[in-house]
Amino acid sequence: MTSLSTLLAEGLRPGVYRWPSAPGVADVRRDAAAAGFGFVLLDTAEIHDKTGFLDLCATAFDLPRWFGRNWDALADSLSDRSTGAPEVVLWTGLLHLLEHDHDTVDVALQIFAEDTTNSGQLRVLIAESETPDLLSSLPVL
């Protein structure tokens, strides 16, 4: 297993990645901080729908109170954060949300991918050992 500190030191490019052998949250948080990155945990193990996901994003990303809780607002809010420190986003529990709301996961992945291309700030790491079709095209760490 490659450590996050090694991946970041080697210049992990912004993007959305599958990381089936991801270590625990505390280790990822520590390695991100040591490399000068912010850390965001998206744990969707108890989330069932778009509303819950957007509420989680508002809290996890510390979005402003005026965050509109819709897809456009999420995309805009993430791009507004592009002047800050780069961030590592660890997404756990994705398969649970995928079982309940495939469309929410699909749109969220599109927004994250677009943001990584436009702002270059996010490294979204999906900590799942299974690979559903929706994730099969993502690079693996």
UniProtKB/TrEMBL annotation:
Where does this protein come from, organism-wise? Kribbella pratensis
Annotated protein name in UniProt: Barstar (Barnase inhibitor)
Gene3D superfamilies reported in the protein's UniProt record: Barstar-like
Family per record: Belongs to the barstar family.
- Lineage top rank: taxon: Bacteria
Query: What positions does the domain Barstar (barnase inhibitor) occupy?
Result: 39-116
